[in-house]
Amino acid sequence: MKVSIHGGHSGDFCLHAKDHLEDMVQAYIEKGFQWVGITEHIPPPNDALRYQDEIAAGLDHEYLKQQFTRYMTTARSLQKKYQDDIQLFIGFESEAYSGYIPHVKSLIHQYQPDYIVGSVHHVNDINFDDSPACYEKAIKSAGGIIPLYKRYFEIQYEMIQQLSPKVIGHFDVIRLYDPLYRKHLEIPEISQRIHRNLSLIRSKELILDFNLRSLLKGADEPYVSGSILKVAQAMGISVVPGDDSHSLDTVGLNIDTGNRLLQNAGINVQWQKPV
Ligand SMILES: [Zn+2]
Ligand SMILES: [Zn+2]
C-alpha cells in the first residue's frame, strides 16, 4: 500500500519546488497511492526569516502569506475534486525559528489544516539545510558540530511540546551534511536527547515521517537513521513513509524502498493516517 505522510511541495506555492500541484496529485493517483498528505511550507512571520531564494527573488512576507492562502484554497479544492480517486489530507510544514510558537498557532487557527508536520530547519535562525555553506554557518554559530546537534534536538523537543504536530518531519535532518553522523548520533549527550524526544513523541502518539528525500540528496538511508528507527520500533512509535516531493519527478520517489526498509525493521505497515 502506497502512502505519503509528507509531500506535495509544488512550484505553484514554493520557490524551491517545481510543477503544478494538480499535476502532482494526478501523478499520485496514477502511481496508485491510497492517501497523501499535502504539506506546503508555511510563510515566514517577517522578512528576516524568509528562505534565501525568497530573499533573492524579492518576495516579501506579505506576498508569501497571500501565496500561502492561495495554497490552502487550491489544496482544499483538489481534495474535493479528486476525493473518489485518492484521499488527500491538507496540512502544512511548520518551522522552529524565533517567534514560531505564536506564528504557527495563529496559522493553525486561521487556516484549520487537517494536521501539521513539525520540522526544524533552523538553529539560531540559520537555515542549516539550505546548503553546505549554511550548515557550516550553523556549526560556527552553535560552537561546533556536537553543540549543533544538541541545540537542534533541544529546539525539536520544545517544538513538539508546544505544537504537538501530528507528524514529526525528517526527525534527524541535522545529520544532512555531516559525513560522521552515525558516530555523532551515538554520543551519549546526543543519543539521550534523541531518546527523550522519541519518548515525548510516543507519549503524545505522534507519527515519525520516514523521509525519503535524503536518498535523492545522496544519503544511503532515509531520515530517520537506522539506529533511531530501531529505538522507535521498540517504543512502538508509528513510522510512515513520506516522499517529501518537490516536483512531478519526485512524486512517490523511493516509496517502495521506504516500505521495504520499514517492513524489514519490523514496523507496523498498516500506515497510520495523520487524522
Ligand atoms: Zn521544501
Ligand atoms: Zn522539511
Question: Could you give a short description of this structure?
Answer:
The protein has 275 residues and is α/β, with parallel strands linked by helices. The chain has helices at residues 21-30, 52-56, 61-81, 100-111, 132-142, 145-163, 181-186, 188-203, 213-216, 226-235, 255-264, and strands spanning 2-7, 33-41, 87-94, 115-118, 122-123, 126-127, 167-168, 207-211, 238-242. The chain has a seven-stranded parallel beta sheet with strand order 1-2-3-4-7-8-9. It has a two-stranded antiparallel sheet with strand order 5-6.
Describe the 3D structure.
The radius of gyration is 17 Å and the shape is globular. The strands form two sheets. The chain has a seven-stranded parallel β-sheet with strand order 1-2-3-4-7-8-9. The protein has a two-stranded antiparallel sheet with strand order 5-6. The chain is 45% helix and 16% strand. Strand 3, helix 4 and strand 4 (115-118) form a beta-alpha-beta unit. The protein has eleven helices and nine strands. The two termini are 18 Å apart. It has 275 residues and is of the alpha/beta class. Helix 5 packs across helix 6 (145-163). The longest helix is centred in the N-terminal third of the chain and has 21 residues, at 61-81. One zinc ion binds next to loops.
What does the secondary structure layout of this molecule look like, with pairings?
Blueprint: E1 2-7, H1 21-30, E2 33-41, H2 52-56, H3 61-81, E3 87-94, H4 100-111, E4 115-118, E5 122-123, E6 126-127, H5 132-142, H6 145-163, E7 167-168, H7 181-186, H8 188-203, E8 207-211, H9 213-216, H10 226-235, E9 238-242, H11 255-264
Parallel strand pairs: 1-2, 2-3, 3-4, 4-7, 7-8, 8-9
Antiparallel strand pairs: 5-6
The structure holds zinc ion (ZN) (2 copies).
The site of one zinc ion has 5 residues, from loops.
